[in-house]
Specification:
alpha+beta; Rossmann fold; Dna Ligase, domain 1; D-amino Acid Aminotransferase, Chain A, domain 1; 3 domains; five-stranded antiparallel sheet; 12 helices; binds adenosine monophosphate; binds glycine
């Protein structure tokens, strides 16, 4: 099969790396890809939102499967675009159609979905510019801290948690009346604060059945000890030891099964990944959010722990035969350490040459924000490289990732040295 992977981060590099291992894989293309993906396929200079460009590329290059990495093209309807075209409709797309992608694209949609299907989540109410004062009254009924979420996609920045009631009211007004988050904030979900430990569970579904992929924990804050600004993710570990068999059974029974059944009952077709952000509150799982895709950098920890042929699983998704595909995981621990550009998540430099990549051993250096210029690999994003390692223990996996994090050099390199330490 000839596969087109959409996206340009560490997640897409990991997809290319994993799919290249399948005997069923023919050519791999990545649009637009990065300096690392070109080791596993051909980069194509197309934007993930250029649906007509992607469609023409697929027909002229005999693409037989499209794997969508990021959420934006899914929420914008890339899968629907393919289904609406008499030729492209025969090319399976891994990633849900627009309606299913609303699980991530609209917090209000996903909260209503969870409520309708009795999936445990924080109590909430949704407000719009017309009823800001009701929003203020609702905040009065809650206990601090207050959680306010822009309804739409806001590049991971749309959630504000405040401990002061007055500030929370002012924030609600800023989001709704002053359009602080633009159109994404035209509705705001206010929800009850959940205290607990976060983890993510990943599910691959063909809309009929599902496979539960390895769970992972990511490290969202820039600073060690979970301090400072939020980022796209500074590292990840898999598995998560506090998500033991008993907890995961609760997740399957109370969250995963009702989610898949709920999609079926609501007649929402769903072929792709469901990333379930969970809070473990004293041993009970609550859903914080759904994403309609894999996480980044969680993918770089999860895929190395899947022993099975990923393309075989994707074929199962495409043909509605996922149930019959074999699925096996690696019991080892994966640790991913993200190397970032100095200044990230604020302003940062691009174009700094990266050295030492050829000396990496015992880990995989998945490229996140890199590009090749005049034969050299240079930085091209805030998150530059995701160093992924497997080990028989967390300690061993951590050792490999941190050793290689030192070997790779570029100006302004930064990484958190405490990834996985809290779980050791
Ligand atoms: P989200 O974009 O919905 O994942 O929210 C971003 C982050 O905000 C989450 O990863 C949590 O750390 C935090 N968060 C979101 N909702 C809640 C909640 N109801 N209670 C506590 N923390 C939350
Ligand atoms: N690492 C979090 C995400 O991919 O949304």
């Amino acid at each position: 099969m000839n596969i087109l992977i959409i996206g340009s981060g560490g997640r897409e590099h990991a997809f290319a790396w994993k799919l290249a291992q399948s005997p069923k894989t023919g050519k791999i293309f990545i649009a637009p890809g990065n300096a690392g993906t070109s080791a596993w396929g051909t980069n194509v200079n197309l934007s993930p939102l250029d649906f007509s460009g992607i469609g023409s590329f697929c027909t002229s290059n005999r693409i037989t499967m499209v794997v969508v990495g990021p959420e934006a093209p899914l929420v914008e309807g890339i899968h629907d675009y393919f289904l609406a075209d008499p030729v492209l409709k025969n090319i399976p797309v891994i990633g849900p159609q627009k309606e299913g992608a609303q699980l991530e694209g609209s917090k209000d949609f996903s909260k209503q979905f969870m409520q309708r299907h009795h999936i445990p989540t924080a109590a909430y109410a949704t407000f719009s510019p017309e009823n800001i004062s009701e929003g203020h009254l609702f905040l009065d009924t809650l206990k601090a801290p207050y959680v306010l979420k822009a309804d739409g996609l806001a590049a991971g920045k749309g959630v504000v948690i405040l401990s002061d009631l007055k500030e929370a009211k002012a924030e609600l007004t800023a989001m709704l009346r002053d359009a602080k988050f633009g159109a994404a904030g035209s509705k705001v979900v206010i929800e009850e604060f959940l205290a607990g430990i976060e983890l993510s569970v990943f599910v691959l579904s063909d809309g009929l059945s599902y496979k539960i992929l390895p769970s992972a924990k990511d490290y969202k804050r820039i600073g060690e000890g979970d301090t400072g600004l939020n980022t796209g993710g500074m590292g990840a570990v898999s598995p998560v030891h506090f998500a033991d068999a008993a907890f995961l059974k609760k997740v399957e029974d109370r969250v995963i099964k009702p989610t898949i059944e709920g999609l079926k009952n609501d007649q929402i077709p769903y072929k792709g990944f469901i990333f379930i952000g969970l809070m473990n509150c004293g041993g009970e799982p609550y859903v914080i959010e759904y994403n309609c895709r894999m996480g980044d950098p969680e993918t770089e920890a999860v895929l190395p722990r899947i022993k099975s042929d990923l393309l075989d699983l994707f074929e199962g998704v495409a043909t509605g035969t996922l149930d019959s595909r074999s699925y096996e995981t690696d019991p080892r621990t994966a640790v991913v350490v993200m190397l970032t550009a100095g200044g990230y998540p604020g302003e940062y430099e691009k174009g700094d040459p990266i050295t030492g990549l050829e000396n990496v051993s015992g880990s995989i250096a998945f490229h996140a924000g890199t590009v090749e210029r005049e034969g050299k690999v240079v930085t091209n994003g805030g998150r530059v490289l995701a160093i992924a390692s497997l080990g028989s223990s967390m300690e061993e996996a951590r050792k490999h990732s941190f050793r290689n994090a030192e070997i790779i050099q570029y100006t302004g390199k930064y990484y958190r040295r405490d990834i996985g330490k809290d779980l050791e």
